[in-house]
Amino acid sequence: MVRNSLICWDVLLRQFFNLKSFSMEINSQLIIDRLSQRMDLDRAYVVKYQFLDQESHHLVLALKPVSGLSHKVLKPIVELCLMDQENISFELIFAPELKNKIKLGSLFYCYAILPHHEIFSCTRSSSLLSKGKEIRGILDLSERYYEKAIAASAEFLQGAQTFAEIANYQRALFMVHQSLESHLKLLQVMVEGKGNNVHSLDSRIRSLHTHFPMFKSVFMGEKDEDKMRFALLDNSFNAVNQNRDLDISAVDASQLYDHCLVLQAAIEKLFRYFMEALQAEYDALVTAEASAQAALEKSKLAKMKEQEQVDVGADFHSFPWPAQYQGDVQELLHQICQENNPEQMMLLNYYVSDAHGKGLFDFPQQNHGKAEIYLVVIKKKLGHCHFRKVAYGQVTAVVAFLTTDFLETKLNQGSRFSHTIWNESVVLYRHSRYKPTYSVAPVDWHSTLFKTSISWTRNSTLMQDLLAVFSFDGLSSPQMAVLFLNQLTSIGLYSYLYLRIGYAPMYVTIADLVDWTCICDKKVKEFFTARSEVEEILNTELLKQMKGRVYELPSQLAQLDMDYFRSKAKEIADFFIDLCDQSIRYMELKSEVKFNKQ
Q1: What pLDDT does residue 60 have?
Q2: How far apart are CA 284 and CA 281, in angstroms?
């Protein structure tokens, strides 16, 4: 193909823009003063860009969706307001639609809403500014599409050269058409975030007219001769698809080829302009976020050191821990304190190799070989965590979390659990900001006995009924037996916690509740300490949180005789009934009232 007019086309296009040049001063404040009085604006942006080295401005007017007026009605109003503002195009778009285009990956709109482009913002509207991750995604997506479009366009141009060499100018212009279509589709993706399969260059140019109004004149020309020549591209495409012949001269083909090269270079430069501007914004945003994060980490570190020096050390060391556990206990308490920022931490009980706690709930003390501490942590607010176990070295902490509001309410109501931990626990740590002035009501043991006795009468009857089921000859399924044992364990355990302690942590497993009973003593935990492999498997099933599910029974249990399950049911029932009866007798002593079990 003859290529002797590339420079001429470039010069002619630049001369066209010079003839159209005028003052580039944009009076943003005047524009907003006029528009804000006539329409319900949400935001407004002035976008600056360059095409063929000529600077242009585009006004993006984001409307509130409740404005009630269509774009067609508002368009003449905007044109009137911009009458004396030359070389500025505009578009009307609803704010939610603008957000959606950015989510689709629009490079143009992501660039448009950068802070330095904003000339108006409704104070009540939420920010449209994209986050760094969203900008990075748009940049990566745009770069991939750019590389794909450029590669496809280059192949079509190579095909155009091949057909031109054999004087098949119709096929050559078909290839030129496809090459230019790839570039125009690239711009459509840049603006809309997605492309379509429209093949008409005329339609594609018109669809971009709102954002780039100079395209029609630059691409198609202003003279009839130029327009007719440019129309040959669409005509060639249609003729090839319809298997028709079209008479095209070598001169027209050569000029259109050269014109296409100039336009494609300008499109690529325009695309890179938006990419580089958005990349610079992304780099600045990442740098700012990194600086802010570094400052935050520095502040946190300083606060942690201050808290460690002022609040933590002296209080934790005030309790006489056994020497061999001192380091692990201090580190574990320090870890809990830093992770939770509590108002107060209280020690309810502990078990170590050569010492033990006093037992807040008046039961005999025992020596134990494990290093375990049982804590209540008071916080202003709780997240999802109400109970947890955490270990360090030789020490394990079992921790229940309570809110300050919960504690204050329960103390005011005379709750025996809250009353006991508040008055008889050991305060290991209290934040300097925490200065409680709670009203602590005495425990009404008479009322407590009345409420708990009603609950125990109901629950003990349920346990006896479940026990009676095991004496039924028709019960022959080990699966059913284990399910009944699980329910028997659950009823017994919850009854014991209610009668003995008066509180069970929320959102915990049955196994966690067994650990929680150790704030009194280790009778329940020792009861569920397996003495054989089969017993260990069974205990796992008994302490499993069923929640309406039926799990497959392990083969070791499925082979057991039903007498084993009957014996186990009686053992569990007798154990919890004895513990609960002891708790009732303790409350009888406190209230000086005798409970008559019916």
Answers
A1: 93
A2: 5
